[in-house]
Amino acid sequence: MARQVARDLAGHEGLLFKKIDSRLKGHIAAELTELAPPGAPLVVNPAIPRLGRCCLGGAVTGAGVDTPIPVAPRLGRALTVPDTRMPEDLAKQLPPQLDGAVLVGAAGLAETLAERLWPEPLPNAPLPLAHPALLAIGSRDPVTLAQVEALRDIPVRAAPNGAYSLDPTDAAHPLLLIRMTPGAEVISGAEAGAAFARTIAAAQARLKPATLFACGGESAAALLAELDVGQLDVLGEALPGVPVARCASGEGFTLVTKSGGFGAPDCLVKLVKFLASD
């Protein structure tokens, strides 16, 4: 896929930003080989300082990172990542002239680039979060588990190994949370993720929620593929690191997503209050 993207981009003018996971998941080195040949100037920084995820000593550290993750080995390049504790540190890393450089980073570097390109952004419009809402928790990250445990008075349905069949009473709830849990049988994460995507897609078709919340990046990606959603129009953020988008294809609905490893313990509590204020 990265090779095809590189072919599609060949000959086009503009900046190239390679979005990566801030904990360096995925096949970053292989993708970067296709998009930026050896010797191409790189601006690399996966830090997201405003969410507490930093780079120190060439490694990702901070919120949601138990053990520092070295950056250079994951990218397959000999490179230096400056210490990054504050958003201002990211701004200092951007070169005066952006032409010719390949930017490689997560949301922090993307936001810094946007602020450089559009120093006076338009004010955000009110975000359309409405009932009924379906909350799909596919992440098993301890950060997310603590956020779910903090919720009160929300019906929670367990989906062992990703599987759950709706109860006839589920449609009566303005807010419903379905969370993936370990099952009796040991299966791969990919199998459980695919099953959970099918479960949530079926619930989406039956309940037709106005707002769908998907927690866990891999879960959200699998769900969008299952729903055949090819385009999202990003509207803003419900909370820091919690983007809101409108699905442009199909019947259309509002999608809220959150990484499994981000957010304060009361993140989901605040989101539910946001929905309840509708």
From TrEMBL:
UniProt-recorded Gene Ontology molecular function terms: ATP binding; kinase activity
Keywords: ATP-binding, Carbohydrate metabolism, Kinase, Nucleotide-binding, Transferase
Pfam families listed in its UniProt record: NBD_C, SBD_N
Domain Four-carbon acid sugar kinase N-terminal stretches: 11-61
Segments forming domain Four-carbon acid sugar kinase nucleotide binding: 177-268
InterPro entries in the record: 4-carb_acid_sugar_kinase_N, 4-carb_acid_sugar_kinase_N_sf, NBD_C, NBD_C_sf
Record family assignment: Belongs to the four-carbon acid sugar kinase family.
Protein name in the entry: Four-carbon acid sugar kinase nucleotide binding domain-containing protein
Species: Alloyangia mangrovi
Lineage: Bacteria, Pseudomonadati, Pseudomonadota, Alphaproteobacteria, Rhodobacterales
